[in-house]
């Protein structure tokens, strides 16, 4: 009897344990259901992560240009560092490099050569500059340089090749000259998804019989094809060749075409008839932007309507001197001290691939030359910023400040003086100073 009671209790205990386990199991199942419900929002979040946002409709780039980059004798001596026995040009650009680096494509005209120390460094009339300038230009923010100008052959055939080697070693793109006729004298760059073609041409001096001359130097036949040039005497013929160049660049995929033209008359504030004729021809061929160099003074800007295409071309006939020692004290001409950084914003519609100009802005610059312990210092300065706070840029002389103000006034008058630009109502408010 006692055994049966004991067995009943044992069985009862077992049943109780089983019941507890069943209830616990049910409770766990309820928790699992709740967990599944709590995970549902996470699945929705994952769905949102996979959601495709609409593609952008536009992309914008800023293409900028400066004028002549020259190094005269006093500059060569000023940039020599006695402690390292080397040259350093970085200080020339320290006050403007923020403007240069803000551009998507920063361009300039290199009006010198890198012929090497063995040839001896020199300036006018035959320029040969220390290689360190190339490194300073790259650090300052330049992306590509025009190498076709009337000083391209100053250090001969070897100088043409070595100049390109020095620039390309620094990561700078070049256009206007080439090492051999199998290579290309133009560049096509992909800038934020827009392919930009770059080409540069220089004027020739009068021909010597069957030979071309540049800077009054007879160019050997084997070198003629290495420098992109044109002759005013044979302009119609040369324009045909330039037209083919534009076609070639576009055939290779360029959507925007930029030309540097080394043209015009030195020390003149207005473009001549040849400049206007060539600019209109380039516009008709499909060139979008023309940066002019050689006059050593700033000339006007114009927006040209292409006669062949439904588009417009921006031309700055001369960007003046960005870096040089051409000063009032030497040339009795204050305007050779003036420079400018011109920025052109272009917008591409990604839905129809149409590219339009959105804005033109510019930064007036001036070459500040002063002396420290008898040694010259050359610095390019942005005039608007300097006028706001002269002391920040080391300007303490009222005479120097007047020269900066005068330079700025001359630049604004020159760049916006073209009557054709003033007449175009659609560009009112498009152009502004920085």
Automatic annotation (TrEMBL):
It holds the Pfam family PGA_cap. This is Poly-gamma-glutamate synthesis protein (Capsule biosynthesis protein). PANTHER family: CAPSULE BIOSYNTHESIS PROTEIN CAPA, POLYGLUTAMINE SYNTHESIS ACCESSORY PROTEIN RV0574C-RELATED. InterPro entries: Capsule_synth_CapA (IPR019079), CW_Biosynth-Accessory (IPR052169), Metallo-depent_PP-like (IPR029052). Belongs to the CapA family. The lineage of its organism: Bacteria, Bacillati, Bacillota, Clostridia, Peptostreptococcales. Residues 62-326 form the Capsule synthesis protein CapA domain.
């Amino acid at each position: 009897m006692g055994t049966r009671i004991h067995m009943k209790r044992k069985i009862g205990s077992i049943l109780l344990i089983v019941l507890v386990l069943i209830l616990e199991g049910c409770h766990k199942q309820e928790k699992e259901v709740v967990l599944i419900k709590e995970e549902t929002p996470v699945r929705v979040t994952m769905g949102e992560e996979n959601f495709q946002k609409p593609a952008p409709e536009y992309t914008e780039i800023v293409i900028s240009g400066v004028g002549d980059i020259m190094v005269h004798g006093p500059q060569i001596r000023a940039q020599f560092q006695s402690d390292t026995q080397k040259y350093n040009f970085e200080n020339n650009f320290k006050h403007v490099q923020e403007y240069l680096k803000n551009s998507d494509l920063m361009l300039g005209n290199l009006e010198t050569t890198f012929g090497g120390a063995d040839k001896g460094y020199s300036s006018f009339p035959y320029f040969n500059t220390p290689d360190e300038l190339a490194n300073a230009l790259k650090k300052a923010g330049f992306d590509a340089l025009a190498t076709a100008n009337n000083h391209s052959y100053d250090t001969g055939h070897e100088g043409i090749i070595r100049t390109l080697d020095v620039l390309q070693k620094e990561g700078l793109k070049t256009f206007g000259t080439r090492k051999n006729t199998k290579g290309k004298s133009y560049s096509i760059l992909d800038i934020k998804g827009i392919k930009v073609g770059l080409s540069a041409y220089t004027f020739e001096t009068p021909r010597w019989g069957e030979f071309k001359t540049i800077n009054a130097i007879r160019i050997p036949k084997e070198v003629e094809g290495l420098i992109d040039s044109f002759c005013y005497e044979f302009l119609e013929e040369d324009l045909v060749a330039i037209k083919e160049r534009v076609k070639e660049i576009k055939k290779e995929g360029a959507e925007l075409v930029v030309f540097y033209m080394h043209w015009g008359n030195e020390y003149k504030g207005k473009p001549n008839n040849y400049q206007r004729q060539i600019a209109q021809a380039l516009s008709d061929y499909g060139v979008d932007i023309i940066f002019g160099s050689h006059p050593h003074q700033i000339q006007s800007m114009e927006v040209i309507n292409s006669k062949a295409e439904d588009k417009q071309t921006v031309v700055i006939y001369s960007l003046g001197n960005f870096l040089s020692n051409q000063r009032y004290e030497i040339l009795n001409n204050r305007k050779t001290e003036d420079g400018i950084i011109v920025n052109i914003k272009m917008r591409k519609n990604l839905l129809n691939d149409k590219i339009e100009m959105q804005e033109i802005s510019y930064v007036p610059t001036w070459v500040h030359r002063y002396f420290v312990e008898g040694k010259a210092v050359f610095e390019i300065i942005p005039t608007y910023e300097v006028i706001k706070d002269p002391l920040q840029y080391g300007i303490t002389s009222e005479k120097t400040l007047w020269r900066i103000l005068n330079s700025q006034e001359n630049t604004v008058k020159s760049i916006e003086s073209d009557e054709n630009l003033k007449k175009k109502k659609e560009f009112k408010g498009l152009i502004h100073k920085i």
